[in-house]
């Protein structure tokens, strides 16, 4: 059981259920190849059957951690932080992003958009899921739309989602990892026929880094 005082700090975003933090290379999307410090916050109820971090789902397994300590640590490593999860927007991210930006650290988020947008972001990667669609407000804010392709219908879903984002939002199709052989081939063909899209690969998995 989390006591009242800790719960109040979590509500204010001054503590967050931290699963892991690591310095690595952004493997996906627009910022692929850029060194960044990743902060993975526990908790997600979106339920993607192919999720590659199911261990993140149960927030209770991840200890409430002081946000100031997380920020202090991040600053030792990188000038870009990627906040991911789990679904990071289940938590209030105003406090952590203010602290990071005050330390001149760029704030990036990986999100399904299924919870209200909090925080101030230099980069929002929106990766919508059919099981729990993004809330309306985030589409106009996303800098990057990244759709995971695990079957043919996902291309139709990708176009539906692309019709909701801004004109300047970058569009990516990323193969679901366990289907990568089959789907990468189809994505390559799709992108050549529909060049507003780009392909995103999970390059960190090919590189064997976190
Ligand atoms: C683990 S999620 C955490 C952030 C947030 N819950 C989300 O889904 O955007 C981080 C990124 O990995 C992608 N992802 C998760 N499992 C994947 C898989 N098996 N293959 C390809 N991409 C995957 C997600 O779509 C998301 O873009
Ligand atoms: N290297 C690396 N890049 C990533 N980009 C998004 C990731 C995520 O899990 O959110 C991720 C990740 O887990 N590792
Ligand atoms: S929304 Fe993200 S963390 Fe949650 S199940 Fe889907 S891929 Fe995993
Ligand atoms: Mg990952």
From TrEMBL:
Pfam families reported in the protein's UniProt record: Radical_SAM
Residues annotated to bind [4Fe-4S] cluster: 44, 48, 51
Binding site for substrate: 25-27, 40, 84, 210
Keyword Iron tagged: yes
Keywords, sorted A to Z: 4Fe-4S, Iron, Iron-sulfur, Lyase, Magnesium, Metal-binding, Queuosine biosynthesis, S-adenosyl-L-methionine
Name of the protein: 7-carboxy-7-deazaguanine synthase
Record-listed S-adenosyl-L-methionine binding positions: 50-52, 86, 127-129
Organism: Lutibacter oricola
MF annotations from Gene Ontology: 4 iron, 4 sulfur cluster binding; carbon-nitrogen lyase activity; magnesium ion binding; S-adenosyl-L-methionine binding
Co-factor note (free text): Binds 1 S-adenosyl-L-methionine per subunit. Binds 1 [4Fe-4S] cluster. The cluster is coordinated with 3 cysteines and an exchangeable S-adenosyl-L-methionine.
Stretches assigned to the Radical SAM core domain: 31-210
Role summary: Catalyzes the complex heterocyclic radical-mediated conversion of 6-carboxy-5,6,7,8-tetrahydropterin (CPH4) to 7-carboxy-7-deazaguanine (CDG), a step common to the biosynthetic pathways of all 7-deazapurine-containing compounds.
Cofactor(s) this protein cannot do without: Mg(2+); S-adenosyl-L-methionine; [4Fe-4S] cluster
Gene from which this protein is expressed: queE
